[in-house]
Amino acid sequence: MWTTVLQNIFNALQWGSFYSMIALGYCLVYGVLRLINFAHGDIFMAACYFAFFIATALLLKIVGGGWLVFALTLLFTMLVTALLGITIERVAYRPLRRKGVNRLYVVITALMVGFILENGNLAILGASALRFPDILDKQIWQIGSITITNLKVLVIIAAFVVFGILQFIVHKTTLGMAMQAISYDKFAIPLMGIPVNRVITFTFALGSSLAAVAGILFGMSYPVLDPYMGMIIGWKAFIAAVVGGIGNIKGAFIGGFILGFIEIFIAAFFPSSFKDLVSFIILLIILVLKPTGFFGVARSTKI
Q1: Do residues 182 and 196 make contact, with C-beta atoms less than 8 angstroms apart?
Q2: What is the DSSP string of 126-187?
Q3: Between the CA of residue 36 and those of 126, 189, 250, 280, what are the distances in Å?
Q4: Packing angle of the helix pair 40-61, 229-244 (nearest 10 deg)
Q5: Domain count, the chain
Q6: Tens place of pLDDT per residue across the chain (303 aa)
Q7: CA–centroid distance for 263 within its chain
Q8: Cα(245)–Cα(297) distance, rounded to whole angstroms?
Q9: Residue at 289 is within a domain
């Protein structure tokens, strides 16, 4: 019994790490623009494919893979995915922001961008699933009756490192403080000489880079890629961010682990078909009891 519980704790930490890293991207954009970037799950999907092609190309040059290939794949995937995020902001969101349109139209645009990424991938690469290349040799460690892999440990460590770096950027750097300032009052900030568009561009680049980290680690852990893989995991990460408190970095991070634990333990003790149903019911109850999430704060609008 306890062996099963401990094994599922490690599994939940791994899934929670994926949800947390993606939820942090939602949190960043919402924190600055009060915009739910519903395309973020598909940016994660695109990052998986970018990593696939980059890793495949590197493995042709560096035989055997290893940490060098992993580091280079991670770096290039983050750069390319950041450029994708910047492009989406410039092409899809900035024109709407300049026109001052209703927020509903921005949400519809975000959904449209997600569909473009999904169906564009489908049109270019086809419906056949791709297998992510083996960058690192998989190692299995046996601790008593508990099985742990090096990839699982890597994912969990990466999530906490990403969270720590993001906390430092937001709270200790000039750009981070500018992001917080725009979140507080986007109308007064330009009068103080802060380049709003530059800060927003940085926010999208940073959020997309987080999706890239999650994407390459997900591809290494679950090496089957398809164009719609970002849809469900993106929606779940968004829900995790809301449960933790949308706009709150710590809340989004913890919310991802809450969802991971709920899902894994329901799947462990109930039929797998109940996993999503019971998970979302529990999350709905949490939001009914605390609509702002665990760490969210209700905001009043100044008129």
Answers
A1: yes
A2: -SS-EEPP--S---EEEETTEEEEHHHHHHHHHHHHHHHHHHHHHHHSHHHHHHHHHHH-TT
A3: 29, 21, 17, 19
A4: 120
A5: 1
A6: 677 888 899 999 999 999 999 999 999 988 888 888 999 999 999 999 999 999 999 988 876 678 899 999 999 999 999 999 999 999 999 999 888 888 889 889 999 999 999 999 999 999 889 999 999 988 888 887 788 899 999 999 999 999 999 999 999 998 888 888 887 777 777 777 788 889 999 999 999 999 999 999 999 999 999 999 999 899 899 989 988 888 889 999 999 999 999 999 888 888 877 878 887 888 888 888 888 888 876 665 444
A7: 17
A8: 8
A9: no
Q: Find the domain containing 200 and state its range.
A: 2-229
Q: Are 32 and 246 in contact (CB under 8 A)?
A: no
Bridge partners, residue 148, by sequence: 141
Q: What share of the chain is helix, strand, coil (3-state, %, to 5)?
A: 75, 5, 20
Domain-embedded: residue 261:
no
196 and 32 Cβ atoms separated by less than 8 Å: no
How far is residue 87 from each of residues 84, 94, 107, 155, 204, measured CA to CA in Å? 5, 10, 17, 28, 9
Q: Cα separation of 2 and 292, whole Å?
A: 34
Lookup: tokens for 211: 């999706």
In a domain, 276, yes or no: no
Q: What is the pTM of this model?
A: 0.92
Six token digits for residue 35: 């915009």
Residue 24 lies in a domain: yes
Find where tokens 């929606």 sit.
Answer: 235
